[in-house]
Write a structure and sequence with these properties.
By secondary structure, this protein is of the alpha/beta class. It contains 15 helices and nine strands. It has three domains: 58 residues; 135 residues, Rossmann fold, CATH 3.40.50; 158 residues, Rossmann fold (3-Layer(aba) Sandwich), CATH 3.40.50. It has a five-stranded parallel β-sheet. The protein has a four-stranded parallel β-sheet with strand order 2-1-3-4, with helices on both faces. Helix 7 links the parallel strand 3 and strand 4. The longest helix is centred in the N-terminal third of the chain and has 24 residues. The two termini are 16 Å apart. It is an enzyme of class 2 (transferase). It comes from Branchiostoma lanceolatum (Common lancelet).
């Protein structure tokens, strides 16, 4: 049974009103009086006196604005200037803050059509050693929506460590852009960029981690279930960068993990060790098995990914043989929770999940893909500016 969060009774607020409540009410009263005075001037056909604004409206609005800012920023943790390489580096409250920012941007920009451009004058360099659809499009459109300028660099434009050392590239690019998002083969390239550069570095994917994808997955599950705490996610597939990032983030959000991988394709030992310590620290369960049915038993979410990642093409025949029995089907879902849903980061091959599941009502792959945009926008915005959410905080 999933845990529910207790709420503070209304009576508790009555006993302890906010300490600045009366000051805010007085400010509201001043604004109201000033507006009424202006309306009287207008009704009499007289010109509006600028002094009314200076003496009444502006000071009152300034007080309200300051109090609103302080209220919204209470509990806010600034992430400006930091790198985003792995969820291991971020606390539960910081991850929740990023997810809240993503939900806030989605509600305001998509939901109400608000024009919100806090990144005007900012630019993001996008280094892609690997081809990409979702990561590139989500980042380019997302930065543009926020008023920034994305600058895409393909392997033909920049060769990290080939024509120029990673160290030199990091220093040069830091003088041109305000942030770098890199999609690389070796995770050490990201670490070198972070060490040598002077602007925030964002992991767009490495062979070790893909944290942006997990943020999108978590936002999708939050939207669907209404809360993350107490959910059980079953991973059925390769011990790759996606599940590594799940292992770094899930315990901090109260999510249990059951991981099924074929023998010889398990998660990296060092990642597994760190993740098990996180699960113990945050009181969640993490379970490893070589039996997909065992992992899916009682799970709320079934997740899989490609069996053959970029750079593993020569292993294709061996991998297809090793992953027999790992296809996600409704038959496999029979042992899952009644409300189980399916996630896949895409692109998808039919051997990984059959059409009956992939195109069913249980599949959340399309909102999951769209949420890549809102979560990468939230990450980039959080690293460049302090953002105040205007929508209610989700019940994580």
């Amino acid at each position: 049974m999933r845990a529910t969060k207790a709420t503070l009774p209304t009576s508790a607020w009555r006993l302890a009103p906010p300490p600045d409540l009366w000051e805010q009410l007085i400010a509201v009263s001043k604004v109201t009086v000033a507006i009424m005075a202006l309306l009287r001037f207008a009704a009499r056909g007289k010109e509006l006196v600028p002094g009314v604004f200076r003496q009444s409206v502006f000071p009152a609005v300034q007080v309200l604005g300051q109090k609103s800012w302080e209220r919204h920023m209470s509990g806010h943790v600034s992430m400006v200037g930091r790198n985003f390489l792995t969820l291991k580096d971020f606390s539960p409250s910081e991850i929740q803050q990023i997810l809240w920012t993503a939900a806030d941007l989605k509600a305001r920009i998509k939901g109400t059509g608000e024009l919100y451009t806090p990144l005007v004058g900012k630019s993001a360099g996008l280094i892609f050693q690997k081809r990409s659809t979702r990561t590139r499009l989500s980042t380019e459109t997302g930065v543009g929506l926020l008023g920034g300028q994305p600058c895409f660099l393909s392997p033909d434009d920049i060769h990290l460590g080939v024509n120029e050392t990673v160290k030199d590239s990091a220093k040069v690019l830091s003088g041109f852009v305000d942030l770098i998002l890199a999609r690389v083969y070796g995770h050490e390239d990201l670490e070198s960029l972070a060490t040598e550069g002077s602007v925030p570095i964002v992991n767009g994917l490495s062979e070790l981690y893909h944290p942006l994808q997990i943020l999108a997955d978590m936002q999708t599950l939050q939207d669907h279930f209404g809360s993350l705490r107490g959910l059980t996610v079953a991973w059925v597939g390769d011990g790759n960068n996606i599940i590594h990032s799940f292992m770094m983030g899930a315990p901090k959000l109260g999510v249990n993990l059951k991981i099924a991988t074929p023998k010889g394709y398990e998660t990296y030992p060092n990642v597994t060790k760190d993740a098990e310590e996180l699960a113990k620290q945050y009181g969640t369960q993490m379970y490893h098995t070589n039996d997909p049915r065992d992992a899916c038993e009682g799970a709320n979410v079934l997740v899989t990914d490609t069996w053959i990642s970029m750079g593993q093409e020569e292993e294709k025949l061996d991998r297809l043989k090793a992953f027999q029995g790992y296809q996600v089907t409704h038959k496999l879902g029979e042992v899952a929770a009644k409300d189980w849903v399916f996630l896949h980061c895409l692109p998808r091959k039919q051997e990984e999940v059959d059409d009956a599941v992939f195109y069913s009502d249980r599949s959340l792959v399309w909102p999951e893909a769209e949420n890549r945009k809102w979560t990468v926008m939230a990450v980039i915005l959080s690293l460049l500016k302090d953002h105040v959410c205007t929508t209610p905080k989700p019940d994580f």
